[in-house]
């Protein structure tokens, strides 16, 4: 079963990882004439209060006997159902696209068990595990036009508020462990604030300040403050946000009713976290784990460069059997784990070709490792990845470089074209020209 799931994942990863991280990776298949961009409001994680108590009817994580993750999700439904025309519309839309749901399920298969497990630990409704269907179609490389990234679509500011590191080497908004922890913490905080999961979800999409504002407005008018009563005051995207989740929840609750077949996902961990003791190339890590590079990247999409930095604080995710292979192969490796180091550009107009020559590689390798566009050059102060060329460059990349390194570039300047030098000699006027000038001058004098 795991082999089948990983085959599906690896196939999807080829398409997902071919795109630049700066390109919107989100599937249009989940858009329904509405933009799926998340809330841009940021709230400090430190203000989050204690998690809500275990909801009534929840079964503790260690008491589950479900063999399929979908059944486990159904068992933990706890958000009151929403039933309106938008829910019907979205349910019909998803149900009429079973291939779309199948693709999303294939992408979700490595992550769902972990997400459900984390929800149960916090006593949160398990249908929240379906939220990435709406946010990103379970594409960890999804990037919105608002620069929201990952399964849970954190914008940069909110990501920083919830301790998701974003630097030259990694973006934890795209990693399943850190981003899931941050998203659930944020959702808990919103639930504590509003005491209502539907409003908490609306705030996740639109921002808590906006939800507080419209609640106050309806209170002043003597109107209701539940989701349905407030929906008309919300932007179209947020008004559709909770109904979309309800639609997916309906289909997962009873797939056969909608003629949908959800691919089975085993109710056991897909991956395990492996501690890393030093810098290691992505390609080397994949080789030691006996995985394809695309499959490795699909489980570890937070790493943006060909080298994984960060020492013991950084973990990599591997399927259990591959983790065992990784440890066995690592013990016998006997070679350097990383072939990359950093170099700081101190002067202006350093050509990529000159850098490539200095570090024994090609301009293409330098450009690809540092995402430097064609026909552009590096600015002074940039720190770039380069191949190690000597013993002096051995060792891990320093923590201060990891945290502070930036790459800045500008368009290459076209070679200057020399202006034509003026002639040293003036052309002599011919005799006929002199006579013509003289006649014209005389005529002008007569008319003055």
From TrEMBL:
Q: One Pfam family of this protein, by short name?
A: SLT
By sequence similarity, the record places it as follows: Belongs to the transglycosylase Slt family.
Where would I find the LysM domain in this sequence?
341-386
List, as start-end ranges, the regions of compositional bias called Polar residues.
439-448
Q: In which organism is this protein found? A: Massilia consociata
Residue ranges of the TM segments: none
Query: Which CDD domains does its entry note?
Result: MltD-like (cd16894)
Q: Where is the signal peptide?
A: 1-25
Q: Any idea which UniProt keywords this protein has?
A: Signal
Gene3D superfamilies, sorted: 1.10.530.10, LysM domain
Name used for this protein in its record = Transglycosylase SLT domain-containing protein
Annotated spans, Disordered? 413-448
């Amino acid at each position: 079963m795991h082999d089948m799931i990983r085959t599906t994942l690896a196939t999807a990863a080829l398409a997902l990882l071919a795109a630049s991280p700066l390109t919107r990776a989100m599937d249009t298949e989940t858009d329904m004439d509405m933009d799926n961009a998340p809330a841009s409001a940021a709230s400090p994680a430190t203000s989050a209060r204690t998690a809500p108590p275990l909801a009534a009817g929840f079964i503790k994580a260690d008491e589950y006997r479900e063999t399929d993750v979908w059944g486990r999700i159904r068992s933990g439904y706890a958000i009151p159902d929403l039933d309106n025309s938008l829910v019907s519309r979205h349910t019909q839309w998803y149900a009429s696209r079973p291939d779309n749901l199948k693709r999303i399920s294939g992408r979700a298969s490595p992550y769902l068990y972990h997400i459900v497990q984390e929800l149960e630990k916090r006593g949160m409704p398990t249908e929240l595990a379906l939220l990435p269907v709406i946010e990103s179609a379970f594409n960890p490389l999804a990037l919105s036009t608002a620069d929201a990234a990952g399964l849970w679509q954190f914008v940069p500011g909110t990501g920083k508020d919830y301790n998701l590191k974003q630097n030259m080497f990694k973006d934890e908004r795209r990693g399943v462990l850190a981003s899931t922890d941050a998203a659930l913490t944020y959702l808990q905080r919103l639930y504590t604030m509003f005491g209502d999961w539907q409003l908490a979800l609306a705030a996740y999409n639109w921002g808590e300040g906006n939800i507080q504002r419209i609640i106050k407005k309806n209170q002043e008018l003597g109107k209701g403050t539940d989701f349905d009563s407030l929906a008309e005051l919300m932007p179209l995207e947020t008004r559709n946000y909770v109904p979309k989740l309800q639609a997916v929840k309906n289909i997962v609750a009873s797939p056969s009713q909608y003629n949908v077949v959800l691919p089975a996902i085993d109710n056991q961990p897909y991956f395990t976290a492996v501690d890393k003791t030093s810098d290691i190339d992505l390609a080397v890590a994949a080789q030691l784990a006996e995985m394809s590079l695309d499959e490795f990247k699909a489980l570890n999409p937070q790493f943006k460069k060909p080298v994984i930095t960060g020492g013991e604080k950084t973990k990599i995710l591997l399927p259990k059997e591959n983790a065992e292979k990784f440890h066995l192969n690592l013990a016998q490796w006997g070679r350097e784990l990383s072939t990359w180091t950093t170099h700081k550009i101190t002067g202006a107009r350093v050509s990529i070709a000159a850098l490539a020559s200095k570090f024994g590689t090609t301009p293409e390798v330098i450009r690809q490792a540092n995402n430097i566009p064609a026909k552009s050059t590096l600015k002074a102060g940039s720190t770039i990845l380069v191949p190690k060329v000597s013993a002096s460059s051995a060792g891990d990349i320093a923590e201060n470089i990891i945290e502070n390194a930036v790459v800045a570039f500008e368009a290459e300047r076209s070679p200057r074209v020399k202006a034509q030098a003026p002639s040293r000699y003036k052309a002599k006027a011919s005799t006929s020209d002199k006579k013509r000038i003289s006649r014209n001058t005389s005529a002008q004098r007569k008319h003055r």
